[in-house]
Amino acid sequence: MIALVVGMTLPSCSDDGQGPDVVSPQQLINYTVTLRVAGDTQGSRADGFDDNDYTGGGDDGDLEDPVGDFEKLDRVRLIVTNEAGVVEANYVTFSHEITVKLTTGKKKLYIIGNEGSWDDFGSFASGVNWLSAAKGDNIGDVYSAMLNLSADHSVMEGTRLPITGTADVELTEPKTPEDINQSTEVWLHRAAVKFTFRMRNNTSRKYTVTDLSLGGMSTAMYLMPKGITMGGKDGKTITAFDAVPDAATYDIVRTLAVELPAKAADATDGEWILLFDKPLYALEGKLLENNAPKNYPLSITLDGLISSEMNLKEVQLPRGTHVYVNITLNKIEDLDFDWQIDLVPYAGVTLEPDFGLDADD
Questions:
Q1: Exposed site from 55, 147, 206, 270, fewest CB < 10 Å?
Q2: Which helix (H) or strand (E) segment is 210 a member of?
Q3: Is the pTM of this model over 0.85?
Q4: Does residue 209 surpass a pLDDT of 90?
């Protein structure tokens, strides 16, 4: 369960198919915004795993597609403001392409996906409710809006993940009739860090995983990508970002009863077993101490008494990161556990109507 840090009001909104009111009797531009969801992790990989172990052989080889409706984009809100933060359009749709009529000049675009699928929305410091902001309202500092985990939840829950993005654009004065139609493409980011835990048993007897913990998780993150630097081979990888300063941290702790079967006598390795029936989703963050990166502690317990610990060393966890935690038990006598951590990107794909967007909710 997650909530915005300010306000608790969810205004009603609907897609009436008409788009926003015109903002000027002067020359208006038919401005089309095409949405894409980025593969936006750091892209660091550990040796020893083939890309297709994770991706299922996607178009980009080492990029993942969304899994299930929880990771897909549904209802989308586009808010357009001028440089001063004054609203010129506020439009809701289920389409991956949004066309609005706008005046020329510099604009800021804010996209909020799946807004009805996570618990609460609120207003900014300006006091204007941004989800129902009308033309002429000033919505203030959009980048100050935060997502907080509520006190009784240690992972993100809901119907769908928040998916958000921003862009600075400039609409130019038309010089030909064709110039009345202008467009841009905006990359969106899933506002979460995804964890998948799996383990295999390379010994001759079975064990049961009874406990797992992951420390250093942040309780707050910015709703919009803030202070991000894009890089990577596709230019859509987050290589730097702003985390909420001094956000409190907590440990994800789970009591389990997951059986690890013994390795078959004729097998090289044991079977990979998922420790959870679905991934865990946490907030993006940086674990720091005196402004220096700090390790994220991980631990696992077998049969209630055999434990192993390791650290996820000095990494940053930007939104969209999928963290695979792979654990191999080799020898119980020596407490010989191999831990391997991979950070794998989501795929960047154009959101066609039959992919990633569902309008039948």
A1: 206
A2: strand 207-218
A3: no
A4: yes
